[in-house]
Records
---
Amino acid sequence: MPEQRFNRYGDELRPTTGVHGADISSQRMDALDAAAVAHAFSVFKAQKPGHAIDLGGGSGVQALRFAALGVPTLLIDQLPAQQVCWHGSQLERFLPLQHVSLDVRDLRPHHLPPAISLLYSQRFLHYLRFDEAVALLNLLGERLTPQARCFLSVSGMGSELSRGYPHRDRHLPERFAPLASAVAAHHGIAQPVCLYEPEDLVALTSAVQLQVVKLEVSPFGNVKGEFVRER
């Protein structure tokens, strides 16, 4: 039986943890994915120091893309090694790839490389409360190199995830709730989320001294952008 195609892009509902929605990156690249890959290539070509971080990257397809360009890359996700896309392939012997399996709330400085030149996180930060997201980005931000780029996206208040969302009218610091039951079942998301307006992602990144380079809302209604650390 073919897997269920559940959105307008024809994506299949391939689970990650089973409660955090679908693995999209393994099925297609969007413009933010491509921009992050292009930046990874520029980092390698210019021989700039620093790692790429794939934060909450699920099976790690985007991390593999970065490493294939020669950029040392760390995947941070709670999936076990057996569910990472390169597991058992010996690619870690030939590519600069590493994986740390943990809940990002437990991330500590010793887990991180000394310098980060690229931070990438697609469709993940909304699984954290706003203050948790601020704390996490502050931790990572301490390792960002000058002119490091951050490529971030979150599920948006204008997306179909917001149908029946009980915290629609809550202020950002208080907004964290399960999706409406039908929406949660359709998307395979059983965890509470903080849905974002564009100005909310600006508030999050500004709180950790990231400056907006580009900000947009996808056709699906997710909020995404490119950012640099203010110096």
Note: The radius of gyration is 17 Å.
---
Amino acid sequence: MRENAGTGRRETNWYVITGGPSSGKTTTVDILAKRGYKTTIEEARHYIDTLRANGEDADEIRGHQEEFQRGVLEMQIKQESDLDPNDVVFLDRAIPDALAYYRFRYLPLDKTITDALLKVSYKKIFILDPLPLVHDYARTENDIQQHRIQDLLNEAYHQLPFPVVHVPVLPPEDRVDLILKNL
């Protein structure tokens, strides 16, 4: 593992798949996994699922936004710290997504997120254009919120020193092909 000169960031072979709610991130990551690539899970949904398994209601979980965002961030930090930087990995969201969500919820940035953002390193970021919004127990945003989150994700990732590729709305397999052609 090498460190980028002057930044303190370790170099990785990780690619981020991100985008606002209902942009096809998990579908894209699932196709990459089926094609044999190492992938990660979306920690926000995993966090909700974990608390629901303990009897908590999804609306109640999301009702405590600062606690929710901090919990998701801590799980994401743990997930990324457990990955081998030499492995090619496609992440279903990454630490900078937390910055977008903190901003979306007007939450103060704390030392955990600011320190984590100084250490992140990715080969490339793929931001998926949003699809029509589909609601479920974990995705509760409306159309306006979906697009605001998309804008905040773009802002967060474009502030970082990593290449960003915007992935248009295409059939899922075509999106994956486009991503793989742009590694």
Note: Residues 13-181 form a domain with the Rossmann fold fold (CATH 3.40.50.300).
